[in-house]
Write a structure and sequence with these properties.
- There is one protein chain.
- The protein is mainly β.
- It folds into two domains: 66 residues; 324 residues, no CATH class.
- 5% of the residues lie in helices and 45% in strands.
- The strands form five sheets. It has an 18-stranded antiparallel sheet that branches. The chain has a six-stranded antiparallel sheet with strand order 1-2-3-4-5-6, with no helix packed on it. The chain has a three-stranded antiparallel sheet with strand order 7-8-9, with no helix packed on it.
- A hairpin with a 2-residue loop joins strand 1 and strand 2.
- It is globular, with a radius of gyration of 29 Å.
- 31% of the residues are buried.
Amino acid sequence: MPDNQADVGGLFQVADASRQEARIAGLYQVVDALSDEARVGGIFQVVDAGRVLARIGGIFQVVDATIWRATMAGIKALRKIQFGKEADSGTAVVCSTIWRGEGVLTDEKAPSFVAEDIGNYEGQGRVYFPKIHAIVDLDETPATFEQFPLLAECTIKAVTTGVTDTGGSGKIYTYTIPTTTPNALLTYTIEAGDNNRVDEMELSHGASFTLSGAKGEAVMMAGTLRARQATDSDFTTTATLPTVEEILFQKGKLYIDPTTIGTTQKTGTWLGFSLDWPSGWKEVFSGDGNLYFTRLEYVGHQENPITGELILEHDATAETEITAARAGTLRLVRMIFEGTALTTVGSAYTYKTLQVDLGIKYTAVPPIGDEDGDDIVTLPFQVKWSATASLGASIVVVNQATTIIS
């Protein structure tokens, strides 16, 4: 039988007794008596005779009485990052909660290439892997009263269970940097990936986190967690998506004082802030039979300090802080943000709360800047211990969760 060829709207079909070939908008189908082969966006499907081929919304399915086969590439919409609380640090567990933000896991297992004189221009690609490691970078996302503590638990201190505000429904979580004795850290098992690949990393601990805020926006958080290694895994299907509430900068208040923290609110001047909080923990690699690190060791913040910036209107408050910067005077800073009312008011708190208390010294005398013609001052600082206030850095979160993660 002669071939038939049709051109319809720039689309071609060619057929004979045993073969059809169709090109439709760059998609190919080849059919004979024994098989269907469809190429759709680089995805191939082949089935036996007795089939139905359907295209619905750009998705192809091939079906017969017993076979349905579809291949799908990974897509961003199906990415997830899940956390599980480790009872024994380094022993992987199933994950219980889903991170409400974006991020990516990186396997840091890096090859070392060996230089050799073997009579070949390109070499033979001899490699070895001297150590293994993994990392998750959590992208900047609106901070919430419910999930910011996940970062504090693995970076500052394992609190895990909140203290009940007397007479109320609020649960109080306090994270304070140590002075002479290291805090215990909570470690996680983390699962991250998409519909095509999932990696798991155990003994996940916080390397650092950031908080920042600006007028008319949410307070933002980001974080980096480091772990022993990345291994192939699957998502825990029972992990749940928590309900969260965003922390808003406009609901914040700033206090700056010389001796008693939280005494003097600075009104009508606070435009923004940033806070970069490294954990103070170091991974120690040693020859002990494993390629991942042996232990975590707390070294504090002298070499890697907690730093940040306060952004103020160039007004009397800013001038006072510039004077403090010139004199090297220690300042006590409180930033407090309130959310919706707690179900039951307690003796200490009425609202969901994030409170950041810092002893700081400014690291530069700032020049005057501008924001849309408005003069502003950006004051960079480092956290320093205040003997008067017995304070270096502390964060309090009040929500209504009995535990941060189960």
